[in-house]
Amino acid sequence: MTPVIALVGRPNVGKSTLFNQMTRSRDALVADFPGLTRDRKYGEGTYEGQRFIVIDTGGLTGDEEGLDAEMARQSLQAVEEADIVLFLVDGRAGLTSGDELIANNLRKTGKRAHLVVNKTDGQDPDIAAADFYSLGFESTFQIAASHNRGIRSLLECLLPSEEEREEQDRAERYPGIRIGIVGRPNVGKSTLVNRMLGEDRVVVYDMPGTTRDSVYIPYERQGSQYTLIDTAGVRRRKNVREVVEKFSIIKTLKAIEDAHVVILVIDAREGLVDQDLHLIGFVLDAGRSLVIAVNKWDGMDPEERARVKEQVRRRLDFLDYADKHYISALHGSGVGVMYESVQACYDSAMAKWPTNRLTAILEDAISQHQPPMVQGRRIKLRYAHQGGSNPPVVVVHGNQTGALPGSYKRYLENTFRKVLNVTGSPIRFEFRSSENPFAGKVDRLTPRQRVKKDNDLKAGRRPKKQRMKSKKR
């Protein structure tokens, strides 16, 4: 589905300029006086392969009469047609009563609306946007449409990424929460699938390699939709010789990417082995939520159980955020409790967080522990927003983010995980540095400056900048 984005706001706040930037055209007339746009205008744009439609509208004041009333009707019609509404305000003029009237009318429509503070060039964007936070919008963006600044970040937040579009396609084919059951051969994966379904749905036999292909099984439990994915066991590469088994492993790895939550089944009687850790690594690389199920727990004496628990605690110390269950798939003990962990993992992986909340968490984290200095300059992290789900992606914007050390990135990850109460799911961070508006521009001298520079060179005098640097030394 192609998203439709409507631009609304007071006259002369930059709607037509933003329309031209988003569509990469000059279809909308732009001039420095209000009321130029009267009819709603449609345009098409693309961002990273995603098509979208933009609607430019006439300015609203809240007390329209005559021709202005007809323009307002056109704008409200655009809001009804849109999936996303961008409410533009003027960062130089500040908050006005007209902005408050438009904000109140947008709330009544029930549409998904975002506040966009335009004309932030030449001033501190945070200061320019400060007055508008009182309007109560969940997400606020700061842009300079005339200079094409901040628009990429805006589109990145509004439009679904390629991963999210693939997720929408999978959701149509496999409804509900998709649960992948993975593990080594003969650890009880198919037995666990049958126990969770309450019937003998897949073949169970005491021989490794019984399951050859990944089986997707939709079902319903207590009014909730699920899709269980039974997979083939994954052995170490040196033990894989048959061609069929190689294809089975490829199907298993694909099933992990299709799943929302992965349940890794471990054989309690063999303990945690290196191949289990390799599978955990692949699940984490795929960004999927993880639940650990230690199977065949029945019939073990207390000493063996204590030894296995200590081994799991010691070797999986890096997975302290993932729930661990000790179960018997054959007898069903502990299996039902795993649904609570699956639901918590799914909620964390698919959570949507507003930009202002993520930015507030970032500011609190910085106040507790500032980023380090690099070449005499402090790394600055300005704001954060969500860049995707399953796994949740937090995009942090700032300066010199490429020099941020790994220890500080882990500190941010642990802070966000604790505050947002993320269970079972990894969190990915993307750090982006602000664009330099003067990059690639030539410093052109005026005729007077050019004559002075030539005279300085003829007289053997150094330029003014070099003289100032030598004085500092």
- What count of domains describes the coordinates? 3
Q: What share of residues are in beta strands?
A: 15-25%
Shape: globular
Overall structural class, as computed from helix and strand content, comes to alpha/beta
**How do the strands of the widest beta sheet line up side by side?**
2-3-1-4-5-6
Name the quaternary structure: single chain
User: What's the average pLDDT?
Assistant: 80
Give me the CATH superfamily of the largest domain: P-loop containing nucleotide triphosphate hydrolases
Subunit structure: Associates with the 50S ribosomal subunit.
Domain EngA-type G: 3-166, 177-350
Biased composition (Basic and acidic residues): 441-459
Protein name: GTPase Der
List the helices and strands and how they pair.
Layout lengths: L3 E6 L5 H9 L17 E7 L2 E7 L10 H15 L2 E7 L6 H13 L3 E6 L6 H6 L9 E3 L8 H8 L3 H12 L3 E7 L5 H9 L17 E7 L2 E7 L12 H16 L2 E7 L6 H12 L3 E7 L6 H14 L8 E3 L11 H12 L5 H14 L4 E2 L2 E2 L1 E9 L4 E7 L6 H15 L7 E6 L13 H12 L5 H9 L1
Parallel strand pairs: 1-3, 1-4, 4-5, 5-6, 7-9, 7-10, 10-11, 11-12, 16-17
Antiparallel strand pairs: 2-3, 8-9, 13-14, 15-16
Pfam families: KH_dom-like, MMR_HSR1
Organism: Marinobacter lipolyticus SM19
Subunit structure: Associates with the 50S ribosomal subunit.
